[in-house]
Amino acid sequence: MSEAKVPAWVNIALIPFLNILLAFIVSGLVILAIGENPIEAAGYLVYGAFGYDEGIGYTLYYATNLIFTGLAVSVAFKGGLFNIGGEGQAYIGGLGVGLVCLALDHTMPLYIIAPLAIIGAAVFGAAWAYIPAYLQARRGSHIVITTIMFNFIASSLMVYLIVNWLKEDGRMAPNSRTFEENAWLPYLHELLSPLGIDIGDSPLNLAFIIALICCVFVWGLIWHTRWGYQLRTLGTNPTAARYAGIDTAKVTIWAMLISGGLAGFVGINEIMGVNHNLLLNFTAGYGFAGIAVSLMGRNHPIGIVLAAILFGALYQGGAELAFEIPTITPEIVVVIQGLVILFSGALEHMFKDRIEGFFIRRAVA
Amino acid sequence: MTNNTVPFAIELRDISKRFGAVQANKDICLQVPAGTIHGIIGENGAGKSTLMSIIYGFYEADTGFIEVDGKRVDIRSSQDAIDAGIGMVHQHFMLVENFSVLENVVLGAEGGALLKGGLTAARVELQRLAKEYSLDIDVDAIVEELPVGLQQRVEILKALYRGARILILDEPTGVLTPQEADHLFRILKSLKEQGVTVLLITHKLREIMASTDNVSVMRQGEMVAHRETQHTNTQELAELMVGKKVRLTVNKDEAQPSDVFLSAKNLTQFDSQGVKRLKEVSLELRAGEILGIAGVSGNGQSELLNVLSGITPMSEGEIQFAGQTITAKAPKDAAQMRDLKMAHVPEDRHKMGLVTGFEAYEAAVLGYHNSASYNGKILMDHKAMLEECKVRMADWDVRPPNPHLKTANFSGGNQQKIVIAREVEQNPDVLLIGQPTRGVDIGAIENIHEQIVKLRDSGKAILLVSVELDEIMALSDRIIVMFDGAVVGELDAKDADERTLGLMMANAYNKEEQGVSA
Predict the structure, then answer these.
(1) Which of A73, B247, B280, B383 is most buried as measured by Cβ atoms within 10 A of its Cβ?
(2) Membrane-crossing residues (chain A) (predicted)?
(3) Domain-located, residue A10
């Protein structure tokens, strides 16, 4: 059969760009419908996200969480597993971070607490993913169902633990005491100011760097190790995996452990980096948004970073937008985010055939 | 054919269809006179099935149009095709297995919200059809209890019931015994006498010669020739299919079998539903011989390969191999069997033998990915993998010799070469090889057969599973026939002929040759 090539940039750049463009056009219609000027709104959104140092800081701070959960989804997805439980794994991962900080912040310095908290996040997140993984690998319970249920269980468990055990005595607020400052992960603006670099005050902290390190780790793991080879084989062709003698149950379980551990790192950013206490609902839907980030980023670390920054910009710019134009409520901002997810995630292939066809015809002609 | 005043039953004009980067059909023109059997022949991947799917409304053509009885029709769905009088019998039957024949036939044409009226009308109509076309069948039988040949008859009835005057059969004999296939061709002849036009899609030259009036040849998405069957021959058709001269025999010397490399006793395997798929299969595999397993597809050959190679655990029995005794209680998985120097070319390279999303150099280490030669301390040694892949591609003439090309983008023959090279180059003691040339073009078949014989001559043991009798007879030194999960016959390749094997494959040998042991 005759073969014609579609240029690589079409799939990597042009199609995602068109999808986002379409999402913004439809968003513009929504804003028109409520009687506001979409151009003006877009201006506030972009300025809020990227226009000044603090805005960029916030954007990257949101992106940090989304990189963790996006990577979590992608590692599982490479093994053919749809991990919907990032939310619960992040929540329990935060518990791990919180317990380490609460236990050690009176006695230990940061350089001891930080590694232990990172391990705590990974171990707790992985443990929460282990049960659905085990049930899938050894008992055949579907991982989508079990991970969804485990999100609810995580949520209830955290309410119980915080309200009954970890709440600060004599206070009504459902959160733990604030950690001592030596259990706070340093903000990037604090780290950079001695070097004479001013990036403005924002919650952006060391967890962002950890997220980037995780990207490199995941990239190496998936594309350059034997385990990654087995994972990708299992994910694309389970029959071939059995033919190759790959222990599919073991690979499944490890994939979920790594996925859960990555999701757990959200706790580093939120609990140790920003809130400095253990509180309810700090995951705020990042686990679910991670699915969209991973989809849009084509399950590749670089794509995930870019998609996470886009979504982070929507969070941050959207908040700014809702502040500047009061008729655009936070709910409308959620609608815009939803449209981006719809067009770049669910409707990802809407233009694909037509655009590829166009380039093939052009290449043939 | 152009000055004909009688309109053709079906005529295709300049049909083209492209899937992404692949041009599956290119400017296809075809004229089929009414009341004839018209064969369409071509190798797997030549675009036959795509073309039929366009006629039957599964795909829409990018360009071109279809005329039925001289009138242009716009077929956008299978319902449009049915309305135009076109019926299709798919290679894999589209039947509801636990429904009766009658229920299957009315499916999609129930004729109302309540079933009773439609069923009664259908019963009368079916009796008429069965009489007219001599297609006897018990309309109340449950489909899954019928033999494959009869299931296919249900498919034909289904099409006729919907008023088909043009019947498309896609590789109809792939699942049939030679005897069942002969019966099918008799049915097609009687359909033709009743004025039905038949389009027969196949890659088997013998069937074309035996049953068609005209034949069209497809190659690489294009229609390359039209012939009247009586004015052509298999050699010419084979050349048209592949575009060069071909040789259909294998040169090999007498086998020199020596030590028993592998012996299996009473291998039995139950599937997850508890159905016995392998029934007490015993066999011995000797160094320096090719043992052929003949049988109609789905009679336990796949299960045998999977159990021998360690992919599925056996339920009962034992295997002696490389000084080890493997039983249900002491199993070995596929990786361990590989370590004992057993290689396996699986029957289905897409489902099992390759990861089509991988680049060639990655797929070329599947199953051997733990080997030290492909690994550094922590990371895989992609450089070594690439180097080796390049060498093998050159040695085995894999085209294009690009280790970075996605496996899916190689042709069937080249994919198969990647798999066979991977397994043979590990220098195994025992090679299990399933359907080595399925979907492989004739040029590559020769090459693959030569390699298998070369491996035998170097003192290795080879177990060959194939549904192509020609291949079994050409390659094997000894032949075992399987039916319904059991071994029903064994014979020396010298004594094998098509008729004997065909009867054994249908488990009819003993019945016909009373007293002859099988």
Answers:
(1) A73
(2) 12-35, 55-77, 89-106, 112-131, 143-163, 204-223, 251-272, 278-297, 304-326, 332-351
(3) no
